[in-house]
Amino acid sequence: MSVFFDSPISEDSIPEGEAELLLSNVGITNGITAAESNEYRQLLAAVHDVAEHVLDLPDYTAPVDTEKYPRQNVHRPTQNEQQYGNAWAHKFLIQGNPNATLLKGKTVCLKDNIAVAGVPQFFGTDAIGPWVPSSDATVVRRVLEAGAQIVGTTICENFCNSTSSYTSAQGTVHNPYAEGFSAGGSTSGGCALIGGGVVDMAIGADQGGSIRVPSSFCGCVGLKPTHGLIPYTGMSSGDAINDHAGPIARTVKEAALGLEAISGRDDFDDRTLGAPVHGSIRYSQQLQTSVSGMKIGILTEGFQPRIVDDRVKETVLNAAYEFRKLGAIVEEVSSPLHLEGPAIWTIQQRIAGTLNLMGFAHGRRGLFSTEYEAARQPWNDQSFQKLFPSTKNTIINGLSLMKSYPGLYAKTMNIAQQLRDSYEELFKTYDLLLMPTTPFVAPPNLDWKQGDSPMAALKPSMGITINTAVFDVTGHPALSLPVGFAPSSADPSVNLPVGMQLVGGLWQEQKILDAAYAWESSNDWKKVGVCDTVDQKISLKL
Q: Which residues carry out catalysis?
């Protein structure tokens, strides 16, 4: 039923033939008759009047207690204040609740797609101007209530559309273990600062590996929890299906503290409807150092692709053997459908990501950033030209897929459910699955600038998410744990961190944290030697 108002309809706002033009854009050239055209024009004018009315209504936003949590010294850091190239987006200080104990004394930084009221956001781009949120993201409020100090926002890659760390319009971020090498993305700045020991904890976002990839490259513990465990309210979205937020820290205990502080149901976010009540699970207090009897499956398909570097493979396999020493049952397991993960994620993300970037995402409840929407406005030649090739590629791919394969998204999501079910079947036997987080250590950063080759810009990121992206589609919790070093293929004299990914069943974060904590308690990953050969005590058909 259409909504009409008593006031006259401003029919002149709609040009003649507009209904026919709209239909022709989707291939319908004879859908209405000439006699019907004017009446549909009137109906268009009516709905436009309703749209204008809604735009004139005051917005509804989450309240912010700036008296209790004032924002101090918000500023764009000078080059002298920057670290690891350009890791900071904005520096400031918000003191947390002085009476809280969970995160008391901890410093926290936030990926620059997480809203902080009064702090401008870049989202890694200059294609549109920065916007200033009027509300705090739910996770911001929760870390402040837990007693942490928020010390700034950190660079994220261009619209969160890259796992490299040179795509942000605000500058390149360098690996804390080797200048000139990638910090990963898209949570590049936060992982560089955590890996370098500058900040205690970061909150990142992960749509294809954006917490776990930079954590692997920078020697951090990075957790992407079960979809919906951590509220996404107040974060710039990639797609509602893929959106995950999570903690990044230097130790498993601190990652568990971060998860405890920010997880749990949020009345604003329909993703969290299945999550436990906020504060009801004490992840850090329940950590176990024993994995005796735990069954860990080494996922064959996670090691098989040719892109997986032999030294990374060796380092992760030897780390897996350490679980045997700790009493776990460690054996090889196969899930052939895992190899379809990159294809399923690519189609799902390109279509849904394009709808999001174009402002056409729909189908869920929540509180959304009208400041971001107002800053973005419709794309034009000038704004599109400023995008990094990875973001341009998403939009071009998505538009093409929707035009050429209108039913593809439905089948893609069916197979995504099949993938989810196949992992859940494995988790009936195994507590965890294990594989490399990334197939190789951090590559060198590229000195790319507008006008250079798009293929050259994208090449360093190709294949990085072969083991991470699929778990964004299925929603399974996954953690990257640093387990040693491997030499760079670009410069063998440079040794860089290796991440081991532990994946659990849905809502099984505690099992992942326990296993990671047990491994970390018995091993100093920074003292693990660079592997030359696979430890023969673990025999796998890889």
A: 111, 186, 210
